[in-house]
Amino acid sequence: MSSESANAIQRSQVDLVDFVDWSGVECLNQNTSHSLPNALKQDYREDDGLNLESDADEQLLIYIPFTQVVKLYSVIIKGPEEEGPKTVKLFSNKEHMGFSNVSDFPPSDTAILSPDNLKGKPVVLKYVKFQNVRSLTIFIEDNQSGSDITKVQKIALFGTTVETTDMKGLKKIEDH
């Protein structure tokens, strides 16, 4: 993690929830009655009574595609003190990962969540690794207490959208 003190989210950054492509969101090993929308969707994730919970074991593999290219600066991953996530690996633009092949790829960044992170302190990412993000895969490898169930209360992604090319400007060059 970066040594910068990033208690405050920078002004230019936005909550990227509005740019999530919900039709493509996936979560492997989720308990169907405590599923990903509880932690990721607006309003649901503000309710600490709603959790995303793992099912067969403590691991969760979350795939979040975006409707446009984003730059990712930081993440907030909230969870309870005992069952909250501990080791979180983030992968930029890796599609169709499963538990069988997640360890075959080096993560773009790895975070060990502290009690402060679990209460909502942002984790600042290695910014250079998250410049042109079309999708983000979050692999929650284990939890704080080593129990079988991992609980996530909130996932929030902060960054900016990448400016799109001005097509009018492009056309003028071609006309000459």
Automatic annotation (TrEMBL):
The lineage of its organism: Eukaryota, Viridiplantae, Streptophyta, Embryophyta, Tracheophyta. Belongs to the PITHD1 family. Residues 5-176 form the PITH domain. SUPFAM superfamilies: Galactose-binding domain-like. This is PITH domain-containing protein. PANTHER family: AD039 HT014 THIOREDOXIN FAMILY TRP26, OS03G0795500 PROTEIN. It comes from Jatropha curcas (Barbados nut). It holds the Pfam family PITH. One of its GO terms (cellular component) is cytoplasm.
